[in-house]
Amino acid sequence: MQTSAPDPEDPVGPGPGGPPGPVGTRATTAPQAPEPPASVGSRFIWLVTLAQGGVFVAFITPLAISLSIKVEQIVPGQNQYLGYITGAGALAVVLTGPFLGIASDRTRTRLGRRRPFMIGGTLLGLVALVVMATATSIPALMAGWVMAQLTWGQALGNLQTITADMLPEHQRGKVAGLVGFATQIAPVLGVGLAGGLSGDHLLLFLVPGALGAVLVGLFVVFIHEPDSRGMDLGHIRVVEVLRKLVFDPRRHPDFAWVWVGRFCFYFGLTFATTFTAFYFAHRLGISLGEVAGVIALLALGNLVATSAGALGGGFLSDRLRRRRAFVLVGSLFFAGGCLVTAVASSLVPLCVGALLSAVGIGTFAAVDQALVLDVLPERETEAGRYMGIVGFATSVPQAAAPLVAPLVLAVGAGGSNYPLLYGLAAVVTVIGGIAVLRVRSVR
Prior knowledge:
Elements lengths: L41 H33 L5 H26 L9 H20 L3 H29 L2 H29 L3 H22 L15 H6 L9 H21 L2 H9 L3 H33 L3 H20 L3 H29 L3 H31 L8 H19 L7
Helix pairs in contact: 1-3, 1-4, 1-5, 1-6, 2-4, 2-13, 3-4, 3-6, 4-13, 5-6, 5-10, 5-12, 8-12, 8-13, 8-14, 9-10, 10-12, 11-12, 11-14
């Protein structure tokens, strides 16, 4: 059976409503695996990159600096509340993420399965930013952050799932590299915006959100997703939904090892980044408002470092057809940056540690995302479900690490044992890199 060659600028590969794959010539042959999706065009690549970067600008900027400024305004000197707020938001994602992933898989609309969640998540995400910007108490600020995690998280999650739907293997490293670069420099851009808006708490939250909404909107408008109304999805019972929240690691061992590696890396990453603004202020003896300016200046160096890690790792992993080594290298770079930061006592070593960590984050984030797509089980029918389970590996650490971190900080140093915190972050991230070496189906 022959089909016409795909248009290189057409972003949509064969989808659930598309033409069937090749049929075996004999009735006795086993069912063949579905054809891999066709190559996507440059329009899809650039718009999905910009959209994910926009989401990160919108709701990672609060995590990087805006929440710290707001907490300091509401309860001066009580930085432990930042950990409680970020932990609550991540816990909400843990409890809802896979359910929403399953709902995305089973959505039937003219717009497809993923785009309705992008639209709803973005619009409600803007409301969440207003709630945070106008909050006058810790419970209100926490409620806004939980809402932001759920809404912007859905926009981001479905942007990632649509890459699982549409990307062929030979483009995954490239796209993951570009997206990794965009999502790592996005907080840098957000912190730069925050540095200039720190005097206006409403704009501090809403300007990054508006940028994110515009970039997601461009993707929704210009990227077609197949109409899902004709999909035969059948019925599903509540007990079956609950079963779909877990998977059997014996059936999917490579997926399990990638999950463990990501969990460990993001646990260490959350350890090291949640209290960055407070740590810089502590080490340099300056206020949080002044820290925003310092971090904004450091952003230029981080931009170069993250670019080198994400683009270099993503493109080279495609070219060399190797993922595991790059994931390990990323974790080692990040760990090295944590150790330098742990012993730093002035601005220069703090900057060196941040730059090393940025290389590691860029490399790990890009190549690990490609590795996830390589080992994703049941891609054709349940990509949203398994991407939701992958989300556990990010959201659980984001929920747990901020709650554990204050206990670590309190060990023998009056609540400011940052060297121990960054040292533990280094150890945990290296364990994550080593775990990925157990993957067997991908080099």
